Structures are given as structure tokens and as C-alpha cells.
Amino acid sequence: MKDLIGQALLDFQITKKPAAILTETDISEAEEMEVSYWFRSYKDMPEIEQIALKKSKGKILDVGCGAGSHALYLQEKGFEVTPIDISPKAVETCQLRGVKNAKNANILDIKNEQYDTILLLMNGTGIFGKLIHITTYLEHLKSLLASGGQILIDSSDLIYMFDEDEDGGKWIPMDNKDYYGELVFSVEYKGETEDAFPWLYLDYNTLQNAAHGCGLDCEILYEGENFDYLARLTVNRY
Length: 238
Hints:
Shape: globular
Strand order of the largest sheet: 5-4-3-6-7-12-11
Largest sheet: 7 strands, mixed
Oligomer: single chain
Number of strands: 12
Low-confidence stretches: none
Structural class: alpha/beta
Mean pLDDT: 94
Helix content: 10-25%
Radius of gyration: 18 Å
Order of helices and strands: HEEHEHEHEEHEEEEHEE
Distance between the termini: 42 Å
């Protein structure tokens, strides 16, 4: 991993100069994303993220923390937060911003810890990569929950991106995929291109079914206008 997103975050933190990352997937055209978006304050966050932060409680693990904006808000509210990211430079950015306890780590490597809230935001299901990995991740996340704990995770149903056929059904070219929400992302920054990586978008029913299979209850806390949603997963006590 070249860590181009992390480099972009670190550059912006140090220089405060406008910059953009170019992202592209195997089902969409290239588009620019302003790096400043990762540095937004609570008031500038979309409603789905604000709700997730308001619902957070207790000891919190922020998975895929990026520049640390969610962790900073929770930290200022007095919560004990552990932000983690696989990007070393994103973690360095967090530290420069005053985020405490930021760690360079993969969620699957976190063990022997218990959290009251585990946050996975900005399409938190993305880290699963592919459909076949959902159970591995959900079982591991479940193992990190304290009694009465919760997983707050968001995603989007990408079905809207595909054309309808004459019968009203969706025409979905799978191209060796198990599921239409499995995307391949590429990122370009300052003329360099990151190695392509898998990123998973999940419709709610698929997430709910996978959660139930892992002994987790799943409920929707928010539904947006663009097929996006925020879900809460808790351990099934029955």
C-alpha cells in the first residue's frame, strides 16, 4: 500500500492548502474528492454521521478513523475513544490534530479488548472487502463488544446505479463477482496511483441476514434519500 490517502490527509494537515484525491471504481467514472472533507466539524457532517455520534456511548472504538474528525468530536464530549486506521499517515494526521490514542492497526488484529460502541462510518462495510468476508468481520467485531455494547455501521445499497430491463428488473453485470456491491477502487493523488483494492457496499437486508447468522440483532437507525442507512448491531440475548 502506497498510503496515498494518508499522504493526502497529512499534506493537508501540514499545509492547509486545497487538494483533491481522484477516485474511480469499476462501475463508476473518476471523480474528485476534496481532502478537506475528512477534516469537517460536527456541524458540517451529514446527518447519518451526526446520529451515529449522538448514539455512541461508553468506551468507543473508531474503526477506519481517517483524519480523526469523529474521534475528535467524541473526545471533546469526554468519551474514551480509540481511533484505528490501517494508514500510518492517517494516524500521524490524527496525532497532529490532537486526537488521543490513535493507533495504526487493522481491526482484525485488535484482540482482548471490550468496547461499548464500535463505530464504522463513511461506508463502514467497505473494510469487509467482499461478501465472503462478512461473517469473519462480524464475528470478530462481536468478540470485541462489552455486555450491552453496540456496533454502529453505515452503508448504501448500490442497486440504484444499475439499469432496469424491460420487465422492471435490474441488469447487473457481475463480472466474476458474488454480489453487486463488491467494487474495486483505485485512488490517484499527485500523479501517483494506489494499488486497486476491494470495497464492499451492502444493502440492509444482506447485512441484517449476515448479522442474524452471527447471533447479532440488527436495526436501522437512519435511512437517507440515496439508499444509504445507519444500522445498529447488538448481541442477540435469546
